[in-house]
Amino acid sequence: MRIATYNVNGINARLPVLLQWLSETTPDVVCLQELKAPQDKFPEQAILEAGYRAIWKGQKSWNGVAILSRGDELQESRRVLPGDDQDDQSRYIEATYRDIRIGCLYLPNGNPFPGPKFDYKLRWFDRFITHAANLLETNTPTILAGDFNVIPTDLDAYNPERWIDDALFRPETRAAYASLLEMGWLDSIRKLAPAQRIYTYWDYFRNAYNRNAGLRIDHILLSPPLSGRLVSGGVDRQVRGWEKSSDHAPTWIELSS
């Protein structure tokens, strides 16, 4: 089973890229972030014609998350992160595919630091950590996949010194991510490549992609019941180089059945 996460940075603007990638790689499940489309503007028909069912929560101009599945249906279980009834940003959706629960997330960027956006990032992260702990208690095979907007270590950034005061690399941000791993979640890509520089995002500016000046901020975390089923994984880096592509590339893993 292949599961992928992809920040599309505007699903309608990048639809040809998304459809080409789906056709070439045929993942079983895809978590999408940053749809940048209201609920009624999601390209459901095009996704269906590509062979995928979808659940999504859109938001005009910003945010937005979706889960696509090939073959079996998704059983939606949640479309908001618990803990704050006043939070109306579309950043989390959750469903079950076969025997696996999948949470798709778009964690706040948090810049500039310091400021209210960084404070919101940490509050959202705290709610997410609480929800992740509750998910572990169920012992259900679970995947948490998405754009975490976290650079976990120096290994995950080209020239990490320039990111010291960025919200993605602040000690508070990295500590929150580390707490997820400490409670039992497995960083699947880092498990497969413990010492390799792997990036999932390259800025549009300063020729970042061609210089491979990137960041690893898109992650796929596995709960303990799935850790032993991890077979392989990687980043479809070439997609970032396609015309009119997102500034992220799809990240994926393979699980044994």
TrEMBL record:
Residues annotated as site: Interaction with DNA substrate: 248
GO BP terms, alphabetized: DNA repair
Sites annotated Important for catalytic activity: 218
Pfam families: Exo_endo_phos (PF03372)
EC number: 3.1.11.2
Cofactor entry: Mg(2+); Mn(2+)
Annotated site (Transition state stabilizer): 149
Binding site for Mg(2+): 7, 34, 147, 149, 247-248
Catalytic class of the enzyme: hydrolase
Gene3D superfamilies: Endonuclease/exonuclease/phosphatase
Protein name per UniProt: Exodeoxyribonuclease III
